[in-house]
Amino acid sequence: MARNIVIGAAQLGPIARDEPRSSAIARMIALMREASGKGVELVVFPELALTTFFPRWFMADQADIDAFFETSMPGPETAPLFEVAKELGIGFYLGYAELAEEDGRVRHFNASILVDKEGKIVGKYRKVHLPGHREHESWRPFQHLEKRYFETGNLGFPTFSAFGGTVGMCLCNDRRWPETFRVMGLQQAELVMLGYNTPVHYPPAPEHDHLQDFHNHLVMQAGAYQNGTWVVGVAKAGHEEGCDLIGGTCIIAPTGEIAVQCQTLGDELIVHTCDLDRCREIQTNIFDFAQHREPDSYQLITATKGVRKPN
Ligand code: ING
After folding, report:
1. How would you classify residue 125: left for phi > 0, otherwise alpha for psi between -120 and 50, otherwise beta?
2. Are strands 42-44 and 4-11 parallel, antiparallel or unpaired?
């Protein structure tokens, strides 16, 4: 008996710095309507999908930075996406910059939400692994100031019962850390959704630039296989404000196989019928955690942040 969900990965091409949110939303609605015509039930959009990837610039004025954040979700400019989704009976994952008032102070997170087919927010995630740096570094051809503009996510890696299964979310750099997938795997995730903005050029190690697409699929395929979960990774791709971002949007089976992937660096929808019951092939076998894991041998993983001297 298959527990199928038809998933659409909606890759976005570049979003210009001065492109209004209404334009990005219109592009996402077009992809959602295309998805509806293909029987899609759940659409996954990229990280920070409403604006250009603004951490590539140093901005001194907090008002300039905050202009890229959402103070309410949905808000006036994002409401149309929720309305069309509800009209079409399609759920979606959306990555965006969240400006929140919590504990009496303003907080800034690189966030994602999960919205069900009725247009209700049923899950939220805040990016834990913030890559890049905190101060302006003039040697770089472009900045990567996520550590300056965002706080570390404070929600952990939750999973949610939705769309007939157990689903989780993460964002971009999170996918490079095996802990991300394992924490959700230990909550029996059957589907992990994530968006990313990944430059081809990585200034600290340009000798790895040609490996960006390989590393992108490597980490997501590993995460899928080692936890027996479907993984949907969705790019903001293409030449965006002078910076080349990789594509490689894909839907990966619990076996680690790439089921379908985008062929372009623009707005592009790919669709796959994902049988959530296929997770059992892995989760009750090679990666049956209760049978095979030995956590007493893994203490170091949470005991220390950085490396320790070998004994
Ligand atoms: N972007 C990149 C990512 O982790 C990066 C940062 C690029 C890290 C290339 C290492 C190599 O995919 C975001 N937004 O995290």
Report:
1. beta
2. parallel
Dist. CA 214–CA 233, nearest whole Å: 14
* 182-222 pLDDT per residue, tens: 999 999 999 999 999 999 999 999 999 999 999 999 999 99
* Domain 4-303 fold: Nitrilase/N-carbamoyl-D-aminoacid amidohydrolase (3.60.110)
- Report helix, strand or coil for 250: strand
pLDDT, one tens digit per residue, over 74-83 is 999 999 999 9
Q: Is the CB of 256 under 6 A from ligand 1?
A: no
Quick one: DSSP state of residue 199? B
178-185 helix and 212-227 helix, angle to the nearest 10 degrees: 20
Our mutation pick for probing the ligand 1 site, out of 126, 144, 216, 234, counting the most ligand atoms within 8 A of Cβ, is 144
- The residue assigned the tokens 């604006």 is 51
Residue bearing tokens 């992108």: 216
In angstroms, the CA 213 to CA 229 distance is 21
Which residues in 145-190 belong to E strands, given as ranges? 159-162, 165-171
CA pair distance 198, 246, nearest whole angstrom: 6
- Ligand 1 center to residue 216 CA distance, Å? 9
**What CA–CA distance (Å, rounded) separates 227 from 246?**
25
For the stretch 93-143, pLDDT in tens is 999 999 999 999 999 999 999 999 999 999 999 999 999 999 999 999 999
Residue nearest to atom 15 of ligand 1 (CA): 173
Which residues are known catalytic residues? 47, 127, 172
Would you kindly state where each structural domain of the chain is located, as residue ranges?
4-303
Q: For residue 1, what pLDDT band results from cuts at 50, 70 and 90?
A: confident
Q: How confident is the model at residue 310 (pLDDT cuts 50, 70, 90)?
A: confident
